[in-house]
Amino acid sequence: MDEERISHLHPSDLRALTRLITDAVVGGTDVTEAVHAAIARRIGIRRRGEAERMGGISGLVYKSVRSVTNTVARISDRVLDRTEPFLDERPTSTQRDAVVAALNGILGDYLVATGSPIATPMALRRGGTTLPVQPHALRNQLAEPTTRPVVWIHGLCMSDLQWTRNGHNHGHALERDLPTTSVFARYNTGLHISTNGKTLTTRLERLVEAWPTPVERLALIGHSMGGLVARSAIYYASRKGHSWPEKLDPLICLGSPHHGAPLERGGGWIDFLLERSPYSAPLARLGQIRSDGITDLRYGYLRDADWQHPDADVVGVDTRRPVPLPEQTSTYLMAASTGTRRGDLKDRVLGDGLVPLDSALGRHADPDLALRVPRAHQHIMYDTNHFDLLYDYPVYRQIRTWMALT
Q1: pTM
Q2: 238-278 pLDDT, tens per residue?
Q3: Which residues contact residue 246 at a Cβ distance below 8 angstroms, ignoring those fewer than 6 apart?
Q4: Contact residues for 3 (Cβ-Cβ < 8 A; gap 6+)
Q5: Using the 8-state DSSP alphabet, how is residue 7 labeled?
Q6: CA distance 195 to 326
């Protein structure tokens, strides 16, 4: 692709960035005023129970900041309405793609709620292009489709273009070594895992129906959150009466936090502690600027009912109900450890730096929540971090071995 035709910034990005900056300034002003009001109440300037808004000159200043900011945003929108049609929309750069993917992971639910043009819709893609779901059109997109599609599902803050490093891509290598055809999911990782699971199951049903050759076996390979989205899709497929799980074999999860990630639980504790003090309580809002997808990683919520539970936001309370693995499908779980050998401190405590070994391997003290995966279907990669699972060649060799067995 001509480098001069690649753009790091699309015209629609300007509108999205304007809204992000506007909401950040207004939100920051709200937090500052709430802290100011809390202190004023504490020293007796304001009565208990009064709203988190200041009166007098202070209140006027805060109100003015919000008003001016929103006015600037409205003017910017009007200018962009007139100029966007004349701006050239160019192919995206990998740098822009990575930034948009990260923003979707952190603020994806907000981007959807505000109608942001950078909110990423669910799509099944190949070579950076969305695949059509009509049989004839799909055949034209796939030069030599095999009877064994493999769908690769990325993790939090990632995209379908981030499976490649130093010329190696697990999906492309698998096509070279085994009769498979790789398809890459792309989705908004800031949405609830269950929301993405419900959308993915519909996309997979259409993909299998439109596949140019009869599908003998369908494989799902998910990295990190991607493994949870795959499990959620399987769960909802049975409730929607979809047939694609009948062809599913295998399901491979790479460093997926089946029982949650400590970093997200730590964020929950920080919110809890900040809310204990009247001075710091408004600051807890800053800690809560985490997407629905991130908060789902606290315990690995797969169903709507998990995060809709009345106690779902209570620190230290796991509101999940068991979601068994599909019995007719071979499931393989890979974990990583930054330690160099079994049993050292990094192995036991840190896992791959983000996901502990027990979580990635489905182990749990509650037998109802533990994933019943045979030891022969588990594998630990040592001296490996969470993101090495995306593109390290030894990881690929193990994936290829598992794929050859099914």
Answers
A1: 0.79
A2: 999 999 999 999 999 999 999 998 876 555 444 544 444 45
A3: 328
A4: none
A5: B
A6: 20
d(CA 207, CA 220): 13
Distance CA 296, CA 225 (A): 10
Characterize 291-308 residue by residue with b for buried, 16 or more Cβ atoms within 10 angstroms of its Cβ, and e for exposed: bbbbbbbbbbbbbbebbe
- How far apart, in whole angstroms, are the C-alpha atoms of residue 235 and residue 193? 12
Three-state DSSP class for residue 67: helix
Q: Cα–Cα distance between 295 and 193 in angstroms, integer?
A: 10
CA-angle at 246, arms to 171 and 224, nearest 5°: 40
Radius of gyration from C-alpha coordinates of the chain: 24
Task: Name the DSSP letter for residue 125.
Answer: E
Q: How far apart (Å, rounded) are the C-alpha atoms in residues 7 and 91?
A: 6
Per-residue confidence (pLDDT) for residue 115, from 0 to 100: 86
Q: In terms of C-beta density within 10 A (0-12 exposed, 13-18 middle, 19 or more buried), how is residue 148 classed?
A: buried
> CA 179 to CA 309: how far, in whole Å?
44
